[in-house]
């Protein structure tokens, strides 16, 4: 089997398990710990991981590009690895000290001070998260096997040790072991190949500063919502928001991976100045995104009550409206990825990407500060959707300046029409006395069946045919 096929299989395994893991673990934890327990853990992890993100200094993104570019020279690879690790170790130590000072200085953290300090290990050990190195050398096998093994172990621990509401501290420790376990295996794997060196780090400072700016700005509107809910509302609101956002975003990797699998390397079309071929490929890629994302949005909107009940329990009923507000995110984020990372980045427009992200960050932070104190998790959901929409719109604006690419709204309308039978089915089922599990299962099966039939037989979607064919060929 070729290396490309092996990498595809292991990447597919990892993506699939990353989707499956929260589907299994979160419902169990949510039903035992409730919104307050889940909220405590999610806030502590989000707060700590934000500091870890700052300590990373953009290395996970910059590192992949640097390592892949020097992959032909093993000495250069290890030299770059050592230099980036040196920077990361220094930043990890510095940011850990800052984190401890913050936790010890503010009364807000005193009730769970021990858990906050324990979670600081994520920051201290963040330098050992070197998936970027393995991605750069295209060793997806190690990434997949290691990640799946650690997640299975943490899942077993979850079922054995988390039994009552007061076990939220054990749930947090299991989450920490899962994160740190991955990192420790990483460091053991590369320890004999790399040596720490600060001699050649100067050349990395400028590109890292640029990548760091984009990363922090992006995280401000993708991670900060949970932290702000914790500050402006309470643990229960954090728990409710966490349940809805996890379910909303769980399908997004599948949508994005479809585009990655089927879409050729757009950068070569920019380099070759082949405008017509580029537009053809982009139209096809746009249709791939829409055909997958639209039904996901509709499903989340109309099945939110059943999804929340099945995956989180009746204690999370207040998260239903939150999830319905967040339901457009699948389409908005997928289109943002298309415009930003399939067009602007290959076209060398990193500056435009940064401007778009900073714009979204400003709106997100402003809206969250205004809406969370009043509307709690629902306010954060509205702010999230609006800011993601602003970022995607900014990407679109800059794309129109890069290439003369016209969007046809026909695919969106056709895909919405293909969802109409499902909407009718759901409205009919609501008149019946069906339990949530039966309602969700039957609705999902009928939705997929009706959507595929309409796409293939009535709309005669060539895009869906190509999508299915591509997965069939790749899986051989």
- Give the end-to-end Cα distance, rounded to a whole number of Å: 10 Å
Binned strand content: under 5%
Q: How many beta strands in the DSSP annotation?
A: 0
Helix count equals 22
Q: What is the element string, with H for helices and E for strands?
A: HHHHHHHHHHHHHHHHHHHHHH
Q: What's the number of structural domains?
A: 2
Global morphology: globular
Q: Report the mean per-residue pLDDT as an integer.
A: 81
Low-pLDDT segments, ≥5 res? 261-265
State the helical fraction: over 70%
| Sheet with most strands | none
Give the class from helix and strand content and strand pairing. mainly alpha
Q: In angstroms, what is the radius of gyration?
A: 23 Å
Would you kindly provide a written description of the structure presented here, covering whatever features stand out?
- With 476 residues, the protein is an all-alpha fold.
- The protein is built from 22 helices and no strands.
- The chain has helices at 3-56, 59-69, 74-105, 113-119, 121-124, 131-136, 140-161, 168-190, 202-222, 224-232, 235-249, 252-262, 266-272, 275-302, 304-312, 319-326, 329-344, 350-402, 410-418, 420-429, 436-458, 462-475.
- Helix 15 (304-312) packs across helix 21 (436-458).
- It is globular.
- It is found in: Membrane.
């Amino acid at each position: 089997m070729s290396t490309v096929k092996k990498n595809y299989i292991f990447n597919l395994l990892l993506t699939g398990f990353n989707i499956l893991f929260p589907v299994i673990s979160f419902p169990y934890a949510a039903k035992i710990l409730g919104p307050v327990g889940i909220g405590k853990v999610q806030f502590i992890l989000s707060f700590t991981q934000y500091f870890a993100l700052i300590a990373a200094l953009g290395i996970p993104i910059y590192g992949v590009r640097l390592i892949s570019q020097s992959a032909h020279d093993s000495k250069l690879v290890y030299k770059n690895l050592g230099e980036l690790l040196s920077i990361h170790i220094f930043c990890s130590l510095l940011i850990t000290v800052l984190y401890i000072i913050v936790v010890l200085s503010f009364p807000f953290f005193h009730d769970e001070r021990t858990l906050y300090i324990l979670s600081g290990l994520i920051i201290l050990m963040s330098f050992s998260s070197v998936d970027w190195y393995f991605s750069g050398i295209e060793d997806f096998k190690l990434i997949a096997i290691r990640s799946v093994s650690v997640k299975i172990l943490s899942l077993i621990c979850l079922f054995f040790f988390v039994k009552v509401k007061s076990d939220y501290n054990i749930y947090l420790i299991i989450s920490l072991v899962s994160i740190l376990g991955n990192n420790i295996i990483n460091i053991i794997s590369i320890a004999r190949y790399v040596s720490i060196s600060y001699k050649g780090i100067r050349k990395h400072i400028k590109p890292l500063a640029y990548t760091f700016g984009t990363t922090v700005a992006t995280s401000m509107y993708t991670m900060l919502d949970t932290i702000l809910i914790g500050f402006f509302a309470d643990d229960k609101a954090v728990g409710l928001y966490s349940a809805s956002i996890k379910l909303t975003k769980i399908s997004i990797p599948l949508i994005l991976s479809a585009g990655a699998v089927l879409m050729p390397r757009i950068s070569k079309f920019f380099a070759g100045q082949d405008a017509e071929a580029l537009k053809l490929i982009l139209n096809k890629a746009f249709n791939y995104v829409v055909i997958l994302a639209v039904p996901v949005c509709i499903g989340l909107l109309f099945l939110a009550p059943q999804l929340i009940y099945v995956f989180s329990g009746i204690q999370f009923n207040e998260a239903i409206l939150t999830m319905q507000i967040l339901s457009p995110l699948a389409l908005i984020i997928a289109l943002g990825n298309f415009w930003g990372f399939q067009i602007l980045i290959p076209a060398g427009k990193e500056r435009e990407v940064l401007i778009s992200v900073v714009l979204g960050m400003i709106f997100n932070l402003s809206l969250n500060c205004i809406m969370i104190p009043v509307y709690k998790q629902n306010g954060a959901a509205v702010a999230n959707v609006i800011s993601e929409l602003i970022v995607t719109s900014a990407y679109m604006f800059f794309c129109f300046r890069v290439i003369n690419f016209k969007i046809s709204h026909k695919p969106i309308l056709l895909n919405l029409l293909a969802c109409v039978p499902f909407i009718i089915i759901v409205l009919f089922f609501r008149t019946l006395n069906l339990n949530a599990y039966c309602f969700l299962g039957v609705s999902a099966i009928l939705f997929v069946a009706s959507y595929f039939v309409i796409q293939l037989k009535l709309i005669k979607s060539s895009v869906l045919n190509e999508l299915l064919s591509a997965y069939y060929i790749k899986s051989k």
